Amino acid sequence: CAFFIYSFTDFIHGNGFLGVYVGGLIIGNHKFVHKKSIIKFFDGLTWLAQIVLFLTLGLLVNPSELLNPEVIITGLLVGFFMIIFGRPISVLLSLLPFRKIPFNARMYISWVGLRGAVPIVFAMYPWIAGLENAKLIFNIVFFITIISLIIQGTTVPSMAKLLGIFDNAKIPKPINFLDSDFTDATKSSSCEIIITDNVLKLGHRIMDIPFPDKTLVVMLKRGEHYFIPNGKTELFDGDKLLIITDDKEAVLETYRQIGLQKEIPPLD
Prior knowledge:
Mean pLDDT: 81
Helix content: 40-55%
Strand order of the largest sheet: 1-4-2-3
Low-confidence stretches: none
Number of helices: 11
Number of domains: 2
Order of helices and strands: HHHHHHHHHEHEEEH
Strand content: 5-15%
Radius of gyration: 25 Å
């Protein structure tokens, strides 16, 4: 599908990468069978592609050429302009219709505009086309990317704290001991609950925990062991429960009812 979208978009003289990105957005926001497994598979392919991409880019860069005064001066001027003026202005203008987004969040979005591999790949096009000063353009873009990663990349947590949007709450890990996936016709949702001291205050057996009526505990992981629990199963700190509920609202109700409001995971 991705190859077809890229080929068709390129055939009509469009941006193939943008076409694939839009296609991914559309497909990713629809439900289909084995979606979680497919996402995990393509996540691995993504990391592999990034490794190959950065290795290839590294082979094209000559460090001594990056020390050229023309590259350094131009890269610093363009880089700081994009960080201080270009990115913030473009973000603030594009977010004008979204009035509910607070100003500190807008400023944070303005700061985290990291330059990555994509600008470097696009900078290779003049080089491939054999244009004049193509190598200089490539080196400047690469230098700007390094500046962005050093300045913005290393200050992302500090900027979040400075703007008051840093969240210390722990986000529970997604289900990893059982890849549960449901068809579109099924409204059931699953989640993983990690037993903590706060949960154990409610009781040490599953039957003592006030789970909602629409909730079913189907599996328990303790260390590296898995087993199907029953109401009399004793719980210990660090145990992981696989919970199946009727719908997403029941998942949220489960977390609230056992006192884990701050640990409610993001739901798909």
